[in-house]
Design goal:
The chain is mainly alpha-helical. It has 18 helices and no strands. It folds into two domains: 218 residues, no CATH class; 188 residues, no CATH class.
């Protein structure tokens, strides 16, 4: 891929991601207005657990993406793709059995059995279709993946408008959600195989040859590092709505989810900036350009400081009014609630400012250690703070405290062992 094409891919991917986030914001506003705070809180808790299913590939999807990206003729990897598809199918069967046996241990599944079975079993059984995303990303078709995600988000908004003509229920929403997952999953798989140059591969005996399953095993050992980081991230940043639902109430879960999504806006902007800087940092490392690394380090921290300052001003002045307007008066928040989320995203931004240098330099071991440490303590810390009556601020404050050591570590190592190291080399 040429430099110009690579830049176009990045720009288009970012635009599609921002567009998808915009439609996500619209859909959330519609759901709150149609369902009310309590039912929306239940819906948010139900869907927040879907992120766990995506972890079930044990990092094989990341490894497959890298294998395809590094292949001179990706079309020859159909047998490996077949093995991964079969591996995913086995995982789906195991997960389905586990859910049927132990799913009712979760209170939300007991209380909303039909909705849970549609959402969770549907997502589990369609899990093998997620291979299409890995194929397209491996082929450097990130903008296409972004476009598909944007269209899916847009159609979800259209579905909500159509459903809104009747009485909106969690059961109807669950069915519509799974239908979109199925349609776009099949579409991405078909498009991925076509881009490989093997559109006939869907009907090929190779795809269902059980001997290919063994080809997925080596990918598991490669992808395990990715899944550890991903698992820690899901625990730290995706359990909040469910923990709030379980320990407080559906109304509180709705407040948590809305504030979480509002404060994801500045964090997403920062992540977009980081994704652009990542390439520049990696290039400076390869050239031993210490001056450029130091400049990027200062710039990123300056951007983080600016976004944190703007977010603090928003928290103290407009946040409560915005949430009230956004949700049609269904959800009320306080300045103290907003400040808890501001503290969380501030810690995240400054932690990511250092972590991007470690990622570009492929120094992952320390990050993995801190991530596992933080994730393992989250639930005990949250339960303790809930018992003290801290309320809605419990999860964001507990998460911020637990990832603060990672902030110190990532920035210390980034400056002293990446920036300074290359500054000395370039002298």
């Amino acid at each position: 891929m040429s430099t110009g094409s690579a830049k176009s891919e990045v720009i288009l991917s970012l635009l599609f991601k921002i567009g998808g986030m915009g439609f996500g914001f619209i859909s959330t506003g519609i759901l709150v207005r149609e369902l009310g705070a309590a039912s929306y809180g239940t819906w948010a808790a139900l869907t927040s657990l879907l992120a766990w299913i995506q972890l079930s590939d044990f990092g094989v999807g990341y490894a497959l993406k890298n294998r395809i990206a590094g292949a001179t003729r990706p079309g020859q990897l159909l047998r490996t793709i077949s093995g991964v598809f079969q591996f995913y199918a086995l995982i789906a069967i195991v997960l389905a059995v586990m859910f049927l046996v132990a799913g009712t241990s979760l209170s939300i599944v007991r209380d909303y059995r039909a909705e849970s079975y549609i959402l969770y079993l549907g997502t589990i059984l369609f899990f093998p279709l997620t291979i299409g995303t890995a194929i397209l990303q491996g082929l450097r078709k990130n903008s296409l993946v972004g476009l598909i995600g944007l269209i899916q988000s847009m159609l979800w908004v259209v579905c909500l408008f159509i459903i809104g003509w009747t009485k909106v229920t969690l059961l109807i929403l669950s069915g519509a959600n799974i239908l979109l997952i199925l349609i776009f999953g099949i579409g991405q798989c078909a498009k991925g195989l076509k881009e490989l140059g093997k559109p006939e591969g869907i009907a090929s005996d190779q795809l269902f040859d059980i001997k290919n399953l063994s080809l997925a095993i080596p990918l598991w050992s490669v992808g395990v590092r990715f899944v550890v980081l991903q698992l820690s991230s899901v625990i730290l940043f995706s359990l909040g709505t469910y923990l709030t639902y379980s320990n407080l109430s559906p109304n509180d879960a709705a407040r948590y989810d809305i504030l979480f999504k509002v404060f994801q806006v500045p964090l997403t902007i920062f992540n977009i900036i980081i994704s652009v800087y990542w390439v520049e940092i990696a290039k400076a490392i390869s050239l031993n350009d210490g001056a450029a690394l130091k400049r990027r380090f200062i710039q990123l921290h300056f951007v983080a400081f600016g976004l944190c300052g703007a977010s603090l001003f928003f928290s103290l002045t407009f946040c409560s009014y915005f949430v009230d307007l956004y949700t049609g008066g269904n959800i009320e928040t306080s300045v103290s609630d907003a400040l808890a989320f501001w503290i969380l995203i501030s810690v995240q931004m400054f932690a990511y400012s250092g972590a991007v240098f470690l990622n570009a330099a492929e120094k992952l071991r320390g990050q993995i250690g801190f991530s596992v440490f933080s994730a393992s303590l989250l639930v005990p810390a949250v339960l303790f703070l809930f018992s003290t009556g801290l309320g809605l601020a419990t999860v964001p404050l507990a998460t911020a405290v637990l990832i603060f050591p990672s902030l110190i570590y990532c920035n210390w190592i980034a400056y002293h062992h990446v920036v300074q190291k290359h500054c000395k080399i370039s002298l």
